């Protein structure tokens, strides 16, 4: 059986390493072992805008080298549903022949880490008394909230994000974050849609 090549487009520097880890974990959880996750394309959030063609160029490139494409970005202050719908329409114009998953973390990727923060207590530099905020998907400044739950250290997106993503409990994150649950469902869907 040929390996499933997963093309990835992300927004943040830390996402370049963390998103492939999450995709791999989701694949393994669903016993999908024949996947190869290609090095992600990083597109700055402002460059997803229709005025620029960075998103389209990344899609074109990945469509030649991938079997499926996953796009993950922060919703920030945009409505995640509207943002993803717009990007999905643009993606369909470029990539008609491949399954494409587009998910926006509500509001930031770090909200997903906060959603699972209790599963990280005492590990990866997380304090033993860290508690998931009740409004995890409404928080702007989630990076600062994650940092506040670290043991006397500064949160570094490029250093800590991948470690936290590799160790967080995906089930707990799904329970506490609708956008993370959507991410898991979408990834499972595209990985199974050959």
From TrEMBL:
<dbReference type="Pfam" id="PF14103">
    <property type="entry name" value="DUF4276"/>
</dbReference>
<dbReference type="InterPro" id="IPR025455">
    <property type="entry name" value="DUF4276"/>
</dbReference>
<protein>
    <recommendedName>
        <fullName>DUF4276 domain-containing protein</fullName>
    </recommendedName>
</protein>
């Amino acid at each position: 059986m040929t390996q499933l090549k997963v093309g990835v487009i992300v927004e943040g520097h830390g996402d370049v390493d963390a998103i492939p880890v999450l995709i791999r974990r989701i694949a393994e959880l669903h016993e999908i072992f024949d996947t190869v996750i290609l090095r992600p394309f990083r597109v700055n959030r402002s460059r997803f805008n229709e005025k620029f063609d960075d998103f389209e160029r990344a899609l074109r490139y990945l469509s030649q080298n991938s079997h499926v494409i996953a796009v993950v970005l922060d919703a920030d202050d945009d409505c995640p549903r509207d943002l993803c719908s717009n990007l999905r329409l643009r993606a369909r114009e470029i990539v008609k022949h491949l399954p494409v998953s587009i998910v926006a973390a509500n509001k930031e990727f770090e909200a997903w880490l906060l959603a699972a923060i209790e599963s990280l207590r005492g590990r990866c530099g997380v304090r033993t008394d860290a508690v998931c905020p009740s409004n995890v998907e409404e928080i702007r400044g989630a990076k600062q909230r994650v940092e506040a739950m670290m043991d006397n250290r500064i949160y570094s997106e490029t250093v800590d994000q991948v470690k936290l993503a590799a160790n967080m409990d995906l089930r707990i994150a799904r329970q506490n974050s609708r956008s993370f649950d959507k991410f898991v469902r979408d990834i499972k869907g595209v990985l199974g849609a050959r």
